[in-house]
Structure formats: C-alpha cells, structure tokens
C-alpha cells in the first residue's frame, strides 16, 4: 500500500499542482484538506477540483467557530497586534490548519503532511513548527519550496497533467483571507513609496467615497469576549462578519505595513481588517476602564510578546500557555459596553461603561459632589518628590550649569 500525505489544499495553482507533483515525486497518495476559516471565497467546488487533480480523498471542514473561539478571541483578549499594525489574521489561522492536518493524518494513518508555502515567507515556519510540536514523527513536505518552478512552468505543468486550472489570474496580487482579515502582497505594492491602488481592496470602501453620515455601534463584552452588537447577542462568527461589513462600508480597517518577516526580509503588506480594527480598539477601551494602571502597563508588554509569538509560529509552546493564562486572568472584570463611531475610514471610541468600572465620578469631577481630598495632595507630593529633592541637592544642582545643563540667562 502507498503511503499517504495530507495536503492543505486551497484550490489555487500551487496546491493544485502539488496534488499531482506529490505522487510523482514521493509516490504518495494525496488526501486534500480544505478549511473554511471565513475567507468568503467560494469553496463549494474545491472538493471536486481536488479529486479531479488526482487526490484520493478530499475533505472540506468548516473551521470558522474553532478559529474564532480558540485563536481569534484569545488574541483579541491579549490585544495582540504585530508591530503595532497587523492584527495577525493569517498568522492565527496557520496553527489551526496545522492542527487539523495532523488530526486528519492520524485518522488516515498518513506519514506526512504538506502545505503550499514558498521558502520566503512566515507561513512555512508556522506550519512546520506547529507540526513539529504537535506530531514530531510526521514529515512535512512543502512542494513549492522544493520544486523550483516559476509560475509559467507551474501553468505548463498543470496543462500537461490536465489539472483543472484555477480561473486565469487576473491580478498581479497575492492574497490570503479569513474572518479576522485579508492580506494583499506583490505587484506595485512591492514599491513601498507607491500608494496602494484602490483595486487591491475588496472588503473596504474608499474612505473618500464612504457615507458622509457616521454610524455608531455599541459592542458588548463579557469577560473580554465580544458578545453583542447594538444589544443583540451574536455568536463570535456572526459578530465578526457583521462588523467586517459595517466597518468596511465606512472605509475602516485599511493597513499599510512595512513589516519585518521572521525570515529577515522587510516586506510591504497591505491588510484589510475592519472587524479586527474595531474590536481591538473597543476591547482596549474597556480595559482602560476596568484594569488598574499597573495591570495596563504590564499587559501592554505581554501584548507585544503575545503578538510576536503568534507571528513567529510559536502558538503551540509553553510560553504561549503561560501568557494565555495571565491574559485570561486579566479579563475577569472586562465586562461592559463600548460605543464606537465609524466615519470616513476612522473608528473612534466615543463611550464606554462597565459594572466593574474603576472610573469614579465623585473622584474625577470638578463640579459639586467632589469627594477628592485636595488637602491631602501636598503630603502626597512631599513624599513622592522626596528622592528627587535629595538627588538634586547632592548631585545635580552642583553641576556647572545646574540641572538643565545650560544657563538660561547666559543664552540670551
Ligand atoms: N505577512 C502576513 C503574515 O506573515 C500575511 C501573509 C499572507 N500569506 C499568504 N500566504 N499570502 O502573516
């Protein structure tokens, strides 16, 4: 009996060619696995396509709920944004795909898994490292990293082997998408000085052409998880879908990122992440109200570590488990609602409320009802400033030009 390999199949040219190439090169039977993570592209015909190309079996799995519950929402709770810009849509989907590839490989008794990544990107790292953690005995094959074919040669190969061709490529762009966002690379975008042309965008309206009238949305959170929109309870998948539409219609969520890849390349990446943009802002706003200053400071550092580990393919690690436990603990009072205004490409938080709010009106107000004891301030300031006063007297005032380093009077 032939050995089996489970291939992550997208229906595109690379993975279609891989279905033929894998048996030819490795003598293995190919089981194609396609995941629906909310990319919105038509995957109804993908099973048939895989079988036509030569797969012995083709599976299509709806993984949208798994994706949101176990990957997207934990990243949202962590406020994970790579380099302050990228909400990590593609990066979050890779460990899930790796997990399902491994699960199917176990069920089918396969000895290997395969993916369509090239040798220049981050995704290969995420697939390979995730698989190494989950199933160190499985071989990982990346045909497009091995075969050294150009795009033309791949087309020619597909033609020769009567592989059903994906619709002829009409744009020079390479894209990936799921519920959390869409990425666009290549073509003119490889010139970092060139403004992304309007044609690269598919989920967002140009802010200039978006409605003149702003729209307001109220997002309800329960322990850090978004649970409702404008008072209506929604599943995570439905909530993200609706926000992608609403925010996208107002031009919200366009990101132009000159990004540091794990493999050492700087790369210009354009993203559309309407729902992620809104939810990350709203979630952070609720944390500003329900977490202490010290919790917020520390969590910000964790957020950066968390984003890096997602980006770098380290989802299935002990470090991630440790950070996730910390993040989970921080969310126990992050319950309430946030109101955002969407207008002409902007998403602005305009209101927040929480039963666990640490904001105290009677402490903050300058009006009647003020309970803050202003007479206590001088004592607090005296002690707070004590080390400053001591150091100034002992070390700083004796410098030739005093603490400032220049003599203000002499400079005139
Ligand atoms: N630069 C982003 C990342 O590394 C997006 C990658 C898109 N992947 C793709 N195969 N088109 O996560």
Uncertain ranges: none
What small molecules are bound in this structure? arginine
Instruction: Supply the number of helical segments.
Output: 15
Quantity of strands, as a count: 14
Helix content: 40-55%
Q: Which superfamily, in CATH terms, is the homologous superfamily of the largest domain?
A: HUPs
Strand order of the largest sheet: 3-2-1-4-5
CATH top-level class of the largest domain: Alpha Beta
CA radius of gyration is: 26 Å
CATH fold title of the largest domain: Rossmann fold
The structural domain count equals 2
Q: What structural category arises from helix and sheet content? A: alpha/beta
State the end-to-end distance: 91 Å
Largest sheet: 5 strands, parallel
Task: Give the ordered list of helices and strands.
Answer: EHEHEHHEHEHHEEEEEHEEHHHEEHHHH
Quaternary structure annotation: single chain
Name the overall outline: elongated
Architecture of the largest domain in CATH?
3-Layer(aba) Sandwich
* Overall pLDDT level: 95
Tell me what portion of residues adopts beta-strand conformation.
15-25%
